[in-house]
Amino acid sequence: MPSQTDTEPAIRFDNVEKRFGDNVVLHDLNFSVAKGDRVTLIGPSGSGKTTILRLVMTLEEANGGYIYVDGEPLTHEERGGKRVELKEKHKNEVRKRIGMVFQQFNLFPNMTVMENLIEAPVHVLKMSKADAIEKAKGLLEKVGLSDKADAHPLELSGGQQQRVAVARALAMDPEILLLDEVTSALDPEIVGEVLNILRDVANETDITMLIVTHEMQFARDVSNRVLMFDGGKIVEESDPETMFTSPKEQRTRDFLSAVLGNN
Amino acid sequence: MGDNFDALIGALPMVGEGVWITVQLTIGGALLALVIAVALGLLARFKNVVLRGIARVIIEFFRGTSLVVQLFWFFFVMPQLGIELPAMFVGILALGLNYGAYGAEVVRGSINNVPSGQWEATTALSMSSTQRMWRIIFPQAWALMIPSLTNLLIQLLKGTAIVSFITLTDLTYATDKLRNSTDTFFAYGVSLLIYFLIAYVLTLIMNALEVQAKHKLGRGESLREALSFRTPRSADGKAGIS
Fold it and tell me: Buried b / exposed e across A231-248, counting CB within 10 Å, b at 16+?
């Protein structure tokens, strides 16, 4: 008999509202991401895409509504008709299932590449150091940086740092991986090396992915669903083929022609 | 002038003892100040209003009152309340509290200046707030706070000069006595020179700590490289937080 969590979506937004001051970024947002789905969020800047990833990672807190991960409330739950904030301990348990790769890599400069990779597995997941190192070596091999284990992050190129950041997120065995404009800070000629690794991750694992990117070809290759956002609302939603070749909404057509035209 | 040097040699044990007292006060005061600065600096960042409030009151009180008056309180007023404290203990305590209060602001500011991306990465890796602070944020903040802490350390050294008020025979006291057997110009000249030398040694030590801290962040050369005689690289090396 399948447990409840098997039928629950990996991520579900239920009437989520997010404001920064008077600025309403997301209003009554509802959507869900099934387990194993690869969903790309596209849309103009300021449309709330990155805010969605940051809400899932608990880097921002919603002002209203509920976010569920595997059917479990992430930061708030409804109790007797009231929106109640959950304990930090609960948040941290749910958070462990989620990993994130950032635009600016955010590797820890006070640690070597290897130390970056084993830090959380050892101190958060309580993995033995030997096991964590073994696993990190495998991940470094996967991202083609086996020879950089003892390097400091700032000695690496941007593309190499981002590959380490991908490996660091994967070292935690996340069920959900959030990719926030992971190639936006990279020189055009090294964007490919990072995207190829992420393609491999998508092909070889069943990790649920929520992706914000301006790389439309990557979105097309990796995702099975694309959501077009504007003004904090979903304007259009479809498979990537339909979205990129025959979008229904004028707003989507305008956005895509602007983005693809500039490339 | 020759008489002065003879007198100085005669007074060396006394001057030496004065230097020793000054060094003890400086090191003891600095270590206590560092502990207090880190404790108050961290406490002042808490969300909890009560904890934050306690830190703020202590910081503002010891920053806002004179070191001399604090010394007098601990040494002359406390005994009237039945608490008698040895002079050296009082000296270190007052220096530690006073400069610790200043240092707390340095610690707090440096922690807040660690880029937000570092904090976010620790959340994305589900680290606890203790792990986040001690393994990721503080080591990076440490490199940022050393230059300001060096300034405070030099000020603390100079601040020790007032402890003769509470019967301690420090360097200032010793050179004051030296004035009896030499002249004012000579005695205070010796005093200036010794304070400067101590301050210079402290600055060198702190600079070495800074080079080491930056090197740990992958910026700039190692301490060994820095100490070898050759064309220096820029202290910052590659781009990063400056």
Answer: ebebbbbbebeebbeebe
Q: Could you give all domains of chain A from N- to C-terminal order, each with its CATH number?
A: 35-59+97-262 (3.40.50.300)
Interface of B with A (CB under 8 A): 117-118, 120-121, 123-128, 131, 135-136, 139-140, 216-219, 237-240
Give pLDDT tens digits for A182-228. Answer: 999 999 888 999 999 999 999 999 999 999 998 999 999 999 999 99
- 3-state SS string for chain A: CCCHHHHCCCEEEEEEEEEECCEEEEEEEEEEECCCCEEEEECCCCCCHHHHHHHHCCCCCCCEEEEEECCEECCEEEECCEEEECCHHHHHHHHCCEEEECCCCCCCCCCCHHHHHHHHHHHCCCCCHHHHHHHHHHHHHHCCCHHHCCCCHHHCCHHHHHHHHHHHHHCCCCCEEEEECCCCCCCHHHHHHHHHHHHHHHHHCCCEEEEECCCHHHHHHHCCEEEEEECCEEEEEECHHHHHHCCCCHHHHHHHHHHHHHC
Alpha carbon distance A89, B115 (integer Å): 25
* A97 Ramachandran zone, left/alpha/beta (phi>0; psi -120 to 50): alpha
**Predicted pLDDT of residue B30:** 97
B207, burial (CB in 10 Å: exposed 0-12, middle 13-18, buried 19+): middle
ipTM, 2 decimals?
Answer: 0.92
Residue in B closest to A93 by C-alpha = B126
Chain A nearest C-alpha distance from B196 (Å):
34
Token output for A49: 């895409």
Q: Which residues of B touch A168 (CB under 8 A)?
A: 125
Amino acid at B65: T
**Residue B102 · residue B113 · CB < 8 Å:** no
**What is the CATH class of B12-171?**
mainly alpha
